[in-house]
Every structure is written in structure tokens, then in C-alpha cells.
Amino acid sequence: MSFLERIVTRLEERSTTPVVEEVCANGVASVTGGELLAQVSAARKFLRVQGLRPGDRCALFAANSIGWIAIDMAMLAEGIISVPLYSRQEPAELAVMIRDSGASHVCCGEESLREKLRGTMPDLPASSLLAEAFETSVANMDPREPWRLCDDGAITLIYTSGTSGEPKGVMLSAANVNHMLECTAARLNVLMAGSRKPERIFHYLPFSFAASWVLLLSVLSRDSLLLLSTDLNRLPDEIRKASPDYFLNVPALLERMRRRIEEQVSSRGGTAAALFQRARRAAVPEAGATTNFADTAALFICRKFIFCKIRNAIAANLKALICGSAPLSIETQRVFQMIGIPVLQAYGLTETTAICTMDDPHAVECGWVGSAIPRIEMKLGAEDEILVRGPNVFSGYWNRPEETAQALRGGWFHTGDQGEVNAHGNWRIIGRLKDLIILNSGHNIAPAPIEEALLHRLPEAQQVIIVGNNRSYLAALVTGELAGASVSAAIAEVGRGLPHYRQIRSFCILPEPFTIANGLLTANGKLKRDAIIARFYAEIGEIYARKN
Question: pTM for the whole thing?
Fold first, then answer.
């Protein structure tokens, strides 16, 4: 049975029970399993009316919604290759993806999104609005209509975020997704063993991201209720009201949540703030630090009287937070662990159907991203590059045979990530090969660990990027409203114990943060290093001229 058939079976079993709820401006929209299947049937008929046939590509340009889920399932059932697009991405980048995919139709969530594309793309293919897909009567739709999920070939083209160069369309197959959902189901079963049913899952990340889509399909395959956020400005309230068992995150949100916890405790002052700091020393000790009886006692008191209130303020029934897409600060993971909310990390790329490793809920090692999922192999290649092979690995990039051959050479997918594996089989990501800074002394430096350490000591900073390629030393660009003295102090603290070539010698504070809108972050929040260095070329030149 394919993953799509399993989802349909689950929805039929829950034909009169809500399976998805969407928070709207006018309240909450909810669909039962039967209602969602009816929407899928309507969307299938609509796609046929538009002239779309198996193997055609159809771009889906919309924010998360019940309608997004229905039309995506309809494309799967019709054998149409979906091309999901991020609704907040820049029009010029979207135009590249649409043209590259050869999409013959674009389904837009709303008219404003369609106009956004038309302003940049005069050759926009035939288009429709998402709501139109559900205006079609399904009276003539045979309920026994087969689900045409293609067993071989691509079922979706998900474009990589493109930290450098143009994004590439990753072809994922039904076999890739079938294997991945088996793995996620097994891990979620461990997490939810003995817990309530149906599960409640909150979701705010765009379905156009591979990990987000995989979680969506996993949830639809389970006895669960998916609660969709539609307003990122209301996330804390929505999370609390949703009262989820778990939800998927990017590190940026968890970092903000941790800072909010620390600020709220600090603002209370007095005994509570003092106890929290002592408990933190016991639960999250600094390297080489020793724990005394007073700190251990404070940790016991906090767990009994303070941490439960913090957990309830986030979400009363939360079993775990799941995190991926970028490195998470070990400090943040430890703080959540301290208050009783484990953060389960996963590592993967779009090319590996979103996942290569997942944390075991019963064996989390802070700072590591878990062990390899079943039936896949991982090893280290040259320069500690992570190599992967198995049923989760994509078949190639759309219409890019040379890039495909380069990525899959020797029978292994070359991730471009540098890592290490410990005696327990858990992996840690230490950087990107393309991000390596090579000083003119010949020293190779992975910037990410240094950037993370500096951000940890500069909570008021928004971003940090280390530069220095072909230079004689490292420098830092820091965004945010902060004083030069605090940056200097943090740099000095980070540099203690590091070899001279890994120490930051100078810096510049930038008033402009890096954002998706200004083209300095990818769609899922990663630094576009080449673009940042190009944008601030003059400022970087001044740093080195000043120091010389």
C-alpha cells in the first residue's frame, strides 16, 4: 500500500471526525476526513478541466491551508508533478523556478499572489486561484476512481533554497516518500507511546519546504488532528491554545522562545531569578565547571515549582519540540531540556527527502542530531563531508544531468555538509564545505561554530557572519542594535582557547538585518553568504583597511 492509499484509508476511517483545523481571521475552519476527501475529489476534477495530465508540472503558490492540502493530494492522485513555491519568496526567484520546472499551470492562493508573479513574469503560464478548485461539482466523479500515484519517476519538484547560485528542482519519488514516512511513523510512535489519541500537532512552517511536507504527510497518515497557524505574529497564543503534543520548528523560533523565557524570569528578579540561574548552572554547566550542593538544590526546587509554570505557558501537553533545517544552539537545546521539554533534532536535505538522521526520544544527546534512519548508510568522505545512500536519496535534479552526476558520484549523495559521528552512532553537523573560509595562511575554518558561539554571547544581536576568505585573519559582521564594547568583549571571550587563526580580529556592526525580503536569507532563513559578502563588500574592505 502506498503512502497516499494509507492517507486515504485513514481519512475514510475518520470520515466524521475533524482531521485539520485552520485558524482564520473569522474563527476556525475545520474539515473532517470525509470532507477533506470530497475536496480532493473536486480538485481532481478541476485539474482535469484545466487540461493537466499525468507527468505535467503544476506550480502551487499559496500559503498553508486546508485547500493547499487538498489540491496537493489531488495532484498526487492524478499523477501531476507538483511544484510547491514559498508564498513569501521574491518574485524574481519564483519566476526562475516556474520557468525551470516547465510548469504548464500555476495555482495561486489569492489574487495578490498571482499579481505578484505577473509583475515579474509576463510569460506566466495559465493560472487559477486555489478557491476555484473547490467550486467544481463532484457529482460526476466516480468514488472508485483510482489513485494514480506514480511508482517511479518524480511526484514532486521541490526547489532547494539556493544559498549560492540558482535553486535546483529536486525530484522526489513515491519510493522516497514511502520510506521516509515509515521512518517518521516509527519515531513518532516512540514519542507518543501511551499518550492521548488523537494526537494534536501544531504547524506553522510552509508546506513548500520538504521537511514540512513530510511532516504533513506523516500526520495525515496517523490518528491525529493537525492545527494550522495562519498568522506568524500570533504564534505564542496559537501554540498555547492548540495545546499540541509536538510540532516542527526552525532554530530561530526556539532561540526566540528561550530568550523570552530568560527575560521573563530575569524581570521577576528576587528569589525566582536567583534560583533559575543556580538551576541553570546545575543543569547546563559550562565546560570545566563544577556543580555545588546549592545549585543542585535550586534545580530540584525549580523543577518542582517553576519549570512546570514555564511549560504550561508554552503549551500544557507538549511532549517534545522537533527541530531541523539549520544548526540549533546547544545552549537552547539544554535550556528546554532543563525545563522538561526535550528538543528532538533531525538532519537532512531536500535531496534526502528531508531527513537522514533523527533523535531517539529516549536517547537525546544535546548538540547532536541523532543517528541515521533505518536502511540508509552515512559515512565521512574527504574533508569530513557527509555522504549518504539509501532509499531516501533523490533520483536527481530536474533537467540538470551534470549537477546530478556531481552530487551522486560514486553511488553516494555528497551533501556538502561537514560532520562527525560519535561512538553512539549520533551525528553532529560542523559546517558546510562551501562555507569554509580559507585564510591566505592556508588554514581552513568552518565559520558556523564560531558564529554560534558569538551569537550565544550577544543575545541582542540578530545575526553574525564570519568573513576572511583569502585574508590574513577573520572578521565579523554583526547586525542589531548593540554597542561596540559588548561586541569586543564577546569576541575576546569566544577567542579564549582558540588557535590564533580561528580568532576574530575585527568586526563591523551593520544597521540592516539580513532578511528574506532584502535577499540576504534563503526562504527557510539560512544565510546567503555570497550575497551578504557582495552587498557589504565596501564595509568588509574598510574592516581590513582599518586593521592594516
Answer: 0.85
